[in-house]
Every structure is written in C-alpha cells, then in structure tokens.
Amino acid sequence: MNHRVLVIEHEAEAGLGYFEDWLAGAGVTCDVVRPYLGEAVPEAAGDGLIVLGGAASAWDDEGFPWQPATRDLLRASVEASVPTLGVCLGAQLMTLACGGTVERGAPGLEVGLRPVTPLDAAARDPLFGVLPPVAWAVQYHGDAMTVPPPGAVPLATGDPYPAQGYRLGDRAWAVQFHPEATPEIFTSWLANPDPLTAAGYDPAALDAEVRGAAAGLAATWRPFAEAFAAVVTRAEPLSTPPAPLSINGDRAITARNH
C-alpha cells in the first residue's frame, strides 16, 4: 500500500530536509503543498500530516493568509486521529488550533544546536521513545508555546524554553525544534545575520557547530522520522484509544520563527 502524507511548507527555506529521504525510505510518500506560491491548503490530510516551520508568527494571519486554513486542517486532523507532526511554526499553529497559547518568547531567540531532554512520559511514546537521554537538535525561534492544548502530554523540555514537545491524543505531535533541518537548511537561515548578532550570537560559530554535528543529528532524528512513518503505515491503534478530543477552535491569540 502506498501511504501518503500531506506536507504544508510555509517557505522555500524551510522544507522537508532530511525527512524527505527518511520518510521515503520508510514507505511514505510526501505530497508538498506550498501556500506561499498560491497553492490552496486542503481541507483534509491523507494518511498523515506534517506542518513545517517558517519565519511567520502563528497569529500573523494578515501577513500569511493561509494560516487560518492551516490551523483548521491541523484541528481536523487531530480530532480525526490522523498521524500529525507540527514542527516549530507548525507546532505553534497546532497549539493555537487546539486551544493552547503561543506568545513572544521572553528569553528571546533560541538559535543553533541545542539540547532537548525527553521527559519521563517520552519513554512510552512511539516517537520520543527512540531518543537518547539528551537529544541535540537544531533550533531557530523567538516565539513559544506557553500553554499547551488541553489534554496534551509534555514529552520534552529544554533551557531556556521548557516546552519543546508534546503529544495530543495518540497520533499528533508538536516539536519546537527542527528534526528535519539539514546543515544546508540551517545555513540558509543565517543569510540575514543582523538579528542574530543583535541577540549576541556569532552566526559563523552557529553554522560551524551545526555542520560539525551533521552525523549526530542524522543518527538521532532518522529513527524519530521512521517512527512517525511507522505510525502512518500502521493500521491498528497504537494503544487504548483516548477519549475523543473536543477542540473548540482558536483560543485568544496573545502573541522570528522557522
């Protein structure tokens, strides 16, 4: 059976990266929709859904007019138990869509190679259970998921941003970091160094650190991607089904991400 995952890409510089080959190798075909090029966001996903990152804030519907449709798609997919993964901006859109809160992050920009620590619940999770005790990941965000949606299970934390990952229901995940990002993608995010230097970062040092970690990033995040593919391709429930989620639409939005 050919399993197909719908992918929402918010900008050319924040594509599937590593995930394209890793998911294909695990038997999953990705159908990429690019609303920034005028492509319409579908009302329903196929066998799975991935919503990628981008420089937008999750509440900036005027600047990025496809975001309401993306939140609707995320909400519908979570409610229908479609395997769903939100990455950075995608995670923040899922958070808003399902009743949580996203705000400007008080600590400011979190950029570069950063440690993510799985929580106790991660050991029993299909995706986070494959991670080491400390998982190094690429980061680039300044907004934060400050209140998770009702019913979310926190799965990973970090410093200075504690909300790094959660599961909603048994088939939807949100991650603040970038498991898909290749060193080449990260380099493209450094094209405008001004906000980084203003925040006290050395862009060249950030770039060198991520490039030096390429092998470790692949070793850590390929099993994570393959675990998501296994959820997509598995027909039977992962566990005892949770109570049906009741999601009441976008919460009041109080709030540079990739």
Model description:
The protein is α/β, with parallel strands linked by helices. The chain has a single domain, classed as Rossmann fold, CATH 3.40.50.880. The protein contains 7 helices and 11 strands. The strands form 2 sheets. The protein has a 9-stranded mixed sheet, sandwiched between helices. Strands 5-8 form a two-stranded antiparallel sheet. Helix 1 packs across helix 7. The longest helix has 20 residues. The two termini are 33 Å apart.
Annotate the secondary structure layout.
Layout lengths: L2 E6 L9 H8 L2 E6 L14 E4 L15 H13 L4 E4 L1 H9 L3 E4 L5 E9 L16 E7 L1 E5 L5 E5 L7 E4 L3 E4 L7 H7 L4 H5 L4 H10 L1 H20 L25
Parallel strand pairs: 1-2, 1-3, 3-4, 4-11
Antiparallel strand pairs: 5-8, 6-7, 6-9, 9-10, 10-11
Helix pairs in contact: 1-7, 2-3
Placed side by side, the strands forming the largest sheet appear as: 2-1-3-4-11-10-9-6-7
Number of beta strands: 11
Number of helices: 7
The description of the largest β-sheet is: 9 strands, mixed
CATH level 1 name: Alpha Beta
Please, how many domains?
Answer: 1
Taking all residues together, what is the mean pLDDT? 92
Low-confidence stretches: 236-256
Strand content: 15-25%
CATH fold node name = Rossmann fold
Over the alpha carbons, how many angstroms does the gyration radius reach?
17 Å
Helix vs. strand class: alpha/beta
* Superfamily (CATH H level) name: Class I glutamine amidotransferase (GATase) domain
Oligomer: single chain
What's the architecture, going by CATH? 3-Layer(aba) Sandwich
N-to-C SSE series?
EHEEHEHEEEEEEEHHHH
